[in-house]
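ZP: hey, is the zinc ion complex queued? I don't see it on the tracker
AM: it wasn't, my bad. submitting now with these inputs:
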Amino acid sequence: MNESSHTSTTMERQAMHKTPKVNEVNEFIEIASDFEDPLEVIREALSNSYDAEATWVEIEIKQDDEGRNTLIIEDDGHGMDEQDLESFFDLGNSNKHDAIGYKGHGTKIYYKSDEIRVESVKDGNHVESVMEQPWETLNNHELPTYSVDTEETDETSGTRIEVHGFRAGQGFDPEQLTYNKIEHYIKWKTIGGSTAWHFDDDFHEFDIEVTLSPQIDNTRKPIETTNKLEFPDENLHPDGEFVAERMCKHFPPRELTVTLDDGRELTIEVVGMVGGKEARNELPTYGKHSAQFGIWLAKDHIKVERYNDAIGADNEFFHFFFVANCQSLELSANREKIRNKSGDVYQAITNELERFMTKVCQEEWYRDYIARRKLEDKKRSVQSQESSLQDRLVKTKEQGGLSPSNPAEVIAALERYSANGSPETVEIADFRMDEEVNAIVNTDDGYKNAALQAKLSDFFEDETPLTHIDRFICWKVGDRDALTKIERASYLGDPIRFDFSNNEVTYGEEDKKTIPVLELVDKM
Amino acid sequence: MVSFDVIAEAGETRRGQLQINDRTLETPHLFPVVNFYGGGNEPALFGGGIHRTVKEFMVNHPPTTGGTDYSDLFGGVMTSISSLTDYGIREKKLEEYLDNEIREWGKFSDYDGMIFADSGGYKILKQGGELEGEDFTKDITQDKALDMQLDLGPDIVVNLDHPIHPDDEFEERIEKMEKTAVNARQLAKRRDEVDGACYLTVHGYYEAMLERSFDAIENELDKPIPEVFDGIALGSLVPRKDNVEVLIEAVSDCRLEMQQRGYNDLPLHVFGISGNAMPLLVAVGADTFDSASYLHQAINGKYCVNLFETVPVEEADFHACDCRICNDGLHRDRMRNRLDDLYQKDILGSVAAHNLAIQQRELRRFRQLIAEADEDQIAAYLEEAVKDQKGFRKFAYKLINERIKPYFDDDGETSYA
Ligand SMILES: [Zn+2]
């Protein structure tokens, strides 16, 4: 900017500074509504407990007969004091640093309820806090308040959160929420599916238990799992004829380092497996499996998005399950998307990942596995050929020899007919399977255009014009009733007659033409 | 006296010393293609243009080089008898060229590198077995080819070959292989006339084909190949030079074939290939290469950033290059066209020298690594060389996994960090 433009406009300008206003009530409503998927409650709960260094967390989701939901989340983490409670209830005031929960927005999901009750023990103090009718209050354009009671205690630390009358997104529809679905979600979208343990010697393991009330799901036992995502057992060289589906190899954890142009260093932690369908099915997946396999980009060792381009076009993504973690990825508020995709960081990560995956794809075991699959597919097709050939043999025997079902077989029958001393010469001079008039035959009268069909009646089904046809050659006349029906109705607008005793078809009104029919079946 | 000593090996990669009389060449090595006769007279180093500038670099002509000696870029050069007539000369001129060996011409008398005299089989075959000038055509037989090769005063000669083509019918290929074998026998007969190394051309893209090529030659010779020939030259790869997978297979299978037949001690030369494929081919056992790509790239205004990439010379960042050409202000000014009275040959000659320097530098690095015989470092070198080349990457990794050292241990156990 130059000097003159700076001074010339300052003359009569009156400085006005205004602060944009935030409607706090609307802000709470917005944020609480941002969480559309009720499963995100579970993600938030697990992240918070993990950040509180809990060794276990139990989540219970109950539904009473009126369809009201209660969430109970309990852990043995370091607990909350009054100040922590503030960030639990406040907006944009998280005191969590370097933690998985995003800006403390997560807990605001609980505001969509009739009551939030928090009990926590930290450093010998027991706090109890209740917020009544948060959702109703917000919708009346007021900020809800909460009570705090503190007293000394000798209990061990931990937190219990109860959310009564919870409603999230489309609500906790019992039809939608099942153990299988939750388990899948935990392993794919939360700290429960972490791959950090591959890289961290001091990995902090914790147990996760989720219980649904029988009204929601009574099909199986509660979920008991940990925050480790484990691969199916390795099965490098199984014995047997068809084993590719069972084959499985782990690719040990690797730390890849990339230096950006500006000197910054990125670390990418990759670990993964390659395996056949049976092996992959041992992963805790539910629903559409193809959406789970491939190469995942992760942050906090929690999978975010797939980047299957890393594998390259000549490999199919579903053989792979790799998680590439990089803390330099930036995520959207709901952790569903990577925000910094346009930057050089993302570019560097994906480039390095592509290089790494090339190494995996050029690894000998992997190439053996792919070769093995191919071979087994071939063997399978040989087996199915075999059974189809057996079927055909049975059929052929039943029919007592040749019984053409297509024009090519009619040619074979015609050859045999000629070889056995037919009264006239009919030799195939040219044959094109897909053409309507599919043959030119050499006869005693010279070349003729012929239509070859297993059954004459099939020909008329296709309503092929007869203009260029000099001869019909068929194995059998076929469905005489169908032909008679055509005779009675007319064919392509003109009268037609099938004369089976003279073996000919007469067609047309003025330019009447007669087309001889050679039926082979009785002449053999 | 010819000897080839392998002084270090790592996987199938090898470092050697090729000794021919009193000249020594460290391998792996690239022989840049040089046309010694550009259609002109000796004072102009036989003709003008970029070819002349390249030769001035080769013999250290100070006005061109700025006084720095770049002759080490030309430790061995490749030239072909077919290039004698590249400029449509008259027969009288051809005879004049052939009257004196290259080093007998005053300007080249100080050139101390090796001269590899190719028979020019590819080009001669394309011209129907003839060499054509302005006022003459000569049928080229093995004997005539050798006469001309010897007239150049070479360190290495090779038999006149009949290169095969990927589209050749089987019978056509056999015929060519047999003709090549007959020529090899003819060269073998005159072995004593060659005061240097005799190389044998073989052809094929994979083992079965190479097997046939070797068989055809062995059938013709009455002595084992190593008693007559000092090296194997693998030809016919140029039409497939863009398919690195084919190149790797061909070179690797040729080495395998040599091993099985007991010719493993002979150096393996790869005709007409250089640049990006070179590191991978060294990794499967190629010892020497020849190529004119450094020159052709320069003629097209292309400046090599590395083995894989070129940029238009106007866009080149000379300061990013550590070669001696780019570190010299004179050559930077020339390449930037910043001096008055510059000819294209001055600009592009420096570019060609830089392009060659890039390729030679890579081979020098590779030689050092092989000398240390450290497979990790060789794998890392290859990986680094191809890391941004998607097409090459997968072949490089495959090669590293299978031939040098696997990335992922396959001991059935996964050891976690
Ligand atoms: Zn340079």
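AM: back. Residues B 321, 323, 325-326, 354, 357 surround zinc ion (CB under 6 Å).
ZP: great, adding it to the tracker
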